[in-house]
Amino acid sequence: MDNSLEQALDVANYRLTLANQKTNLKHKLQIQQTVAHAGGLFLASIQLITYAKFLIDSAYEQQVFIDTNDIPVMVRDLPVFLNKLNEAYTAAMNEYYAETEKTKKQRSVRTLVNG
User: Fold this and answer.
1) 52 with 77: CB under 8 angstroms?
2) Nearest in space to 89 (alpha carbons), one of 25, 28, 32
3) Which residue of 30, 109, 111, 112 sits 20 to 30 Å from the alpha carbon of 14, by its own alpha carbon?
């Protein structure tokens, strides 16, 4: 096989593998951001964390939230809920950052796959 063709195939294979790794990291992030509370499943996002914090600061004691399955869930313990959201979000983002930084340094398909 021609050397330039082989190099082109290697680059294409690397890019495809890198794209797959990024997609897998995003799925892993979403799973790690999932919080179970009061019978519902919620995605710990900046928006949800900010809203929960606003409710607490405004002296609300409970609030109905729509979970990831579009089911309304009454959350009666807002501080506990906010704490769970913060913990899940922080842990997920820290791991996502670490894995992304590790992926940036890997320059071959073999190192991408084997980590």
Assistant:
1) no
2) 32
3) 30
CB atoms within 10 A of CB 30: 14
CA torsion sign for 48, 53, 39, 94 is positive
Closest CA to 27 of 16, 12, 38, 43: 43
- Reading the chain (115 residues) residue by residue, the pLDDT tens digits are 578 877 777 778 778 888 888 999 999 999 999 999 999 999 999 999 999 999 999 999 999 999 999 999 999 999 999 999 999 999 999 999 999 988 887 766 666 566 6
Written as six digits, the tokens of 76 are: 């009666």
The dihedral through the CA atoms of 46, 48, 49, 52 has a sign that is positive
**What predicted TM-score, i.e. pTM, was given to this entire model?**
0.82
Do the beta carbons of residue 88 and residue 35 sit within 8 Å? yes
Domain of residue 88, residue span: 3-114
